């Protein structure tokens, strides 16, 4: 039965640990409305080969996004899906050619400042009409997603600004991230990246991620609306500051 927990450089205990991490981070992502994907990425980065990390993480996040959509479909703001998809497709097609020349720390700096502005001045997240706005958000999400793993953090303030309540935000954010990760997967496929050896691990993490989404949704129903948004704002602020700190470090300032 060894094939059930086989992945390059990952034994059965680490396999189980990553599956558990997928459950926990999916739960956190639903209950807080942010941070789950980034925490999972940081966890995986400590044990996985860099050449497979982003692709495997993308597949797992796609599975989590799809399962969150299934669990919370009645709460998804469906009117923003088509505009976001159009923008995301354009961003995936041309983003790399334009943005690849910029240093990573520059992207991190821009994103960090941008996230903090949108978080603390929420009216900026309501610019223009809803459809046009989410075309732009979709474009940005895939435009930088391959280079800077802050895509979810970038999208979250906009879904929060458009949402009527916490359930709309969490459900829609999960669906939009599933669209983004689908396009990123296509990009990885075109690049010829092979991650077939990680199929058992990805399958296990997707299954436990589904369970985490279900448990998180049950818990979300018990969280007061005001407390949810307070925690959400604090987490986005910390993530924005983290991007600024990482940008400064990558720029060689310390």
The main pleated sheet reads as:
none
Helicity range of the residues?
Answer: over 70%
Total strand segments: 0
Structural class: mainly alpha
Task: Supply the number of helical segments.
Answer: 10
Reading the helices and strands in chain order gives: HHHHHHHHHH
Per the principal axes of the C-alpha atoms, what is the gross shape?
Answer: globular
List descriptors.
single chain, 254 residues, mainly alpha, 10 helices
3D architecture notes:
Helices cover 75% and strands 0% of the residues. It is an all-alpha fold and 254 residues long. The chain has one domain (10-250). The N and C termini lie far apart (48 Å). The model has no long low-confidence stretch (mean pLDDT 85).
Spell out the blueprint of helices and strands.
Blueprint: H1 12-32, H2 36-45, H3 50-72, H4 81-99, H5 104-120, H6 130-145, H7 151-162, H8 166-190, H9 199-220, H10 225-250
Helix pairs in contact: 1-2, 1-9, 2-3, 3-8, 3-9, 4-6, 4-8, 5-7, 5-10, 6-7, 6-8, 7-8
Quick recap of the structure?
This protein is an all-alpha fold. Helix content is about 75%, strand content about 0%. It has one domain.
């Amino acid at each position: 039965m060894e094939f059930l927990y086989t992945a390059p450089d990952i034994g059965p205990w680490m396999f189980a640990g990553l599956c558990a991490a997928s459950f926990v981070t999916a739960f956190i992502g639903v209950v807080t409305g942010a941070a789950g994907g980034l925490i999972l990425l940081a966890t995986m980065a400590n044990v996985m080969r860099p050449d497979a990390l982003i692709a495997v993480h993308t597949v797992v996040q796609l599975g989590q996004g799809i399962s969150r959509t299934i669990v919370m479909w009645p709460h998804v703001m469906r009117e923003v899906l088509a505009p976001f998809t159009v923008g995301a497709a354009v961003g995936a097609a041309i983003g790399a050619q334009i943005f690849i020349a910029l240093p990573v720390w520059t992207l991190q700096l821009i994103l960090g400042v941008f996230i903090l502005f949108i978080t603390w001045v929420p009216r900026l997240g309501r610019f223009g009409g809803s459809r046009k706005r989410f075309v732009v958000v979709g474009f940005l999400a895939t435009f930088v997603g391959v280079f800077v793993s802050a895509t979810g953090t970038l999208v979250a303030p906009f879904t929060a600004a458009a949402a009527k309540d916490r359930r709309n935000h969490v459900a829609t954010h999960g669906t939009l991230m599933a669209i983004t990760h689908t396009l990123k997967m296509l990009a990885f496929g075109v690049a010829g990246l092979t991650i077939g050896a990680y199929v058992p691990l990805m399958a296990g993490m997707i299954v436990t991620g589904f369970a985490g989404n279900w448990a998180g949704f049950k818990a979300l129903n018990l969280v007061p609306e005001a407390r949810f948004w307070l925690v959400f704002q604090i987490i986005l602020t910390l993530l924005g500051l983290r991007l600024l700190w990482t940008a400064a470090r990558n720029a060689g300032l310390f």
